[in-house]
Amino acid sequence: MAFSFNDRVHYCENVVEVALRDGCFEINRSTNSIKAIRSYVEGCFSVASSTDEDYEVLKSKLLKAPKHLCRGETWFNETLSSGEFSVGEEVYEDDLKALTEVTYEMLVERGVKGEVIASHRRVRVEHFVEEYNVTAIERRAITELYIYPYTLMYGALASTGLLTATLRVRSIYDELTNIIDSLVNNLRHQLIAKRLNPMYSGHWKIILSGEASPAVFHELAHLLQGDEPVKLKIGMNLGEKVNMIEDPFHPGPLQRVFDDELYPAWRRTLIEDGRIVDYLHTRMTVFNEAKPGNARGLFTRSKPLHHQLIVKKGDWSIDEMIDVAKRALIVRSIARAEVSRDYIRLIPEAAVVSERDKLTPTKALEILIPLGRLDAVFIGLGKDRNARYTYEKQQPLYEVAPTILVEARVIT
Question: How many C-beta atoms lie closer than 10 Å to residue 363's C-beta?
């Protein structure tokens, strides 16, 4: 008998959003309810979803789908998760108003303008797999805070932004002063930064902290996805101190007990003592002894993305990194990060040159980390932790990584 899998999905989302712009509150609410059927039958995967059609209509659409287009793929058949999982706390409109007001006032106190958006998202996802009579339900309540400060000086505009998320809104208050001070400091660096002399293009020691450090490992994770045609090879060495884990049980905002294909959650070590040992996988990308567990996407073909990417810290302090580097670029915020050909390419919002006990803000440069020399790139890992919350392919991602000292190429 051919293996088949029909997953009926019901996705319900309630969002309350409070924004504070130019001293004016904007309050918005939205509710979404989406039904979907995801089907894998005789090597064919297909999905249909709708906000107003029932499951029988959706199933009829899948039955009519042309089978000659089937890619004849295999599916990892293993025990499915069942039961209920709940995480997060309820947050009300008044709580969001208070959070935006406090954040906005902190920006004003520091002499900058800006907008602040706080949203509370309550999601309920129910799966029912017909063939196995399995029901799995996830309930998630998450609060997101987006801060966008800007300032104008001598005709120059400087702006930056930060998105953070939590399962318990109190934890944002605990970090708010540090967050605001970091953002305002970034604005100040942008305003006084000068272009780096082109003669300084070349190899640099670079200290990446703030959101810059997790962004590097984010790009590495893309090269460890099981569906990517070009990946870093298993066994490749990145330096003995690098350890990177996809950890669904880390106390972050994206904890889980199963993925979007109902495969049970587990800690997947991707890089161990500097050596690549595994890839991110879905049920349709596994091979040999690999296991799934990283499926993201309910209404599309699931993609192997991390939920919570955790890089273990090292034992270096910032001062030690500066002493070893002698001359270094310090980067905390980035405007862009991507894999470009044979490099991880970073575009800083602003950077600081550290040389002879002098700090000089600089701008208009790019950093290229060579993928072919990763074993020589990572010099030291810090004893601190930097968290980053972002979205990619409409999926939230959470990443934690220490400050890192790397060697890379700088272009001005």
Answer: 17
Query: Residues 296, 304: contact at Cβ < 8 Å?
Result: yes
Written as six digits, the tokens of 139 are 């309930």
Mark which of 176, 192, 208 sits at the end of a domain. 192
**Helix axes 93-109 and 170-192, enclosed angle (nearest 10):** 30
Strand segments (E) across 154-217:
156-159, 162-166, 194-195, 202-208
φ, ψ for residue 363, nearest 5 deg? -145, 180
3-state secondary structure at position 403: coil
Residue 390: domain span: 194-411
Domain containing 53 — which CATH number? 3.30.2290.10
Look at the chain and count its residues.
412
User: In terms of domains, do 246 and 137 share one?
Assistant: no
The pLDDT tens digits of the residues spanning 293-347 come to 999 999 998 999 999 999 999 999 999 999 999 999 999 999 999 998 899 999 9
Same domain, 218 and 93: no
pLDDT in tens, 51-108: 999 999 999 998 887 776 777 677 787 788 999 999 999 999 999 999 999 999 999 9
Cα distance between residue 124 and residue 139, in whole Å: 5
The structure's pTM equals 0.94
Q: What total of structural domains would you count in the chain?
A: 2
At 271-305, the pLDDT tens digits run: 999 999 999 999 989 887 889 999 999 999 899 99
Residue that terminates a domain, selected from 143, 164, 192: 192
